[in-house]
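User: Hey, quick favor. My workstation is busy. Could you predict this chain's structure for me?
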Amino acid sequence: MGQIPPAAPGSTGPPGQWTDPPRRDAPAEPLTPTERAAVLAEPLALAEPAALAEPAVAPGGLAAGAQLCGSVLQSGRPIFEAGLALLLLVVLLRTFIAGGYMIETGSMAPCLLGYHRRVTCDSCGWQFAVDGTQGEGLATCPNCCRDGLTLEGLPLNDGDHLLVSRPAYEFSPPLRWEVIVFRNPSRPGQAYVKRLVGLPGERVHLRQGDLYVNDVIAPKPLAVQRGMRILVHDHDHSPPADEPDWQSRWEIETPGAGWDERGGRFLYAPLERQPAIGGEVEEWVGYRHWIRRGGGHRTSVRLDDWPARLPPSALVDTRLQYVGDARSLVATGALSPGLRARLAEQADDEAFTRSLASLFAASHVAPILDQYGYNYGTKSGSSHEVRDLMFAAQVALRGEPGIFAVVLDDGELTCRCEFDTAEQLVRLVDDRTGDLLRQGVLPAGLREGALVEISLWDRQALVAVAGELVFEPWLAPCGRTARGPTPWRPVRFGARRLRAEVSQVKLYRDVFYTSNLGERGSSAVEELGPDEFFVLGDNSPVSKDSRSWSEGTVLNASLLIGKPLILHLPSRRQRVQWRGWQTEIRIPEPSRIRYIR
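Assistant: No problem, here it is.
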């Protein structure tokens, strides 16, 4: 048995193939005793009972169907077994190795999002996420400060989904700055996700927005900076130049010199007369943080005499005042275009009009604050001036040998990074003293264009080209210089002799750790126990973390669940309509899949 039967007498098929069975009305050939015994000994197949039914197809269809069914079963068995093995593997992975978690709150935004809505700014086109638990309201664009953006009708999206490695900390302890998932010490049934900042036995202190561990500032490496950085401005998403309350944040400081802006790109071509290469770089493009309205900063301009036609009562209920002794006109926040026009018309004084124009431009340049577009509608108290910034841009250096430089100023340190194509070197220099801090080889990719990232965070200067550090980051000694006022032009870039193209210009800021929701680690140094961790959320103004936990509430190793590996299954909701019928569907966003840092 098991062999392919020979061709039946009278069949048209060749030997070695199955043939059509005889019709029921056709006389059957009698079986010999040997053949009958062989048939009775043959085991029944699962498909044979189907032969008992009246055929619904042409003669030969049932035999062909039986052959096809057997073939499918034979070919489908490996697929079934592989699917079953994959299912078992997934169950094992999710039970013992990896688990999926969805984030509900925005305590880690914008790195990781909870329930949220997607807003597109009608001025600059920037898309950003806002808290989805606050209901509908008005949001403010974090890229261009356009306020009054409505959330009406925007679909509510799920929080980010994380794939978490459960055994990550079974063999090695967690590291500082890692994102971790753990059980809430007060409610172990709840899973939280935060960033680990304090390790067992350490002394943790949050001071002026920075983290100090054992009385020394804790700097962030490049990978962590990329994971935590918060966008301040993307020049490719600048509002139209004709908007009355907007001016470009990147300003060519020497009009008519070598710099020119075309379609968001800054191009530098040297003029005929240039000083020697070894001198100071003179032609700059500087950043000024232009805001549309509001603010609590104070700005003053010179005004020798108050206009005779303008009564002092004209400044009542405004944010302007005239200080006669100092002969200055002072504004709190940004001077509005309407107030400027009204006062100029009432005064009808040329000197006063000029002072108003100067005050209008100056008052709209403000310090960078720890504001989050995500936190609309919440009393987050985001009003701290942020000094830790990162400059990122695509840079191409060509033409004659020369220098391209980027300067960052945090009010205490001023670091200049020089890309010297003549000597093929990259130098980090203290711009106040001229001291050489670091030096490395000029990356070859800058001729064709490469991503340049330069940051001054946590009193640490860091330079990377194409994702690689040019040299070891430089960390300033503690107490090196006195901390001055927050600079209002904190970043600029310049060039000389060579040809430069700077595009995709972005400015980021660091997280500023606040004490809004709790003072553990803020009002005094927090000493951690031998099995105690200290965690913080990236969205510091609203995050409920170690700062707000009651005394005696301890996060220890037994409460750690694991380390998030990737953000997976990202999607957004899209509303679709058809003939009066509408619904919301989830649209996958593969571009948002990424490793968690």
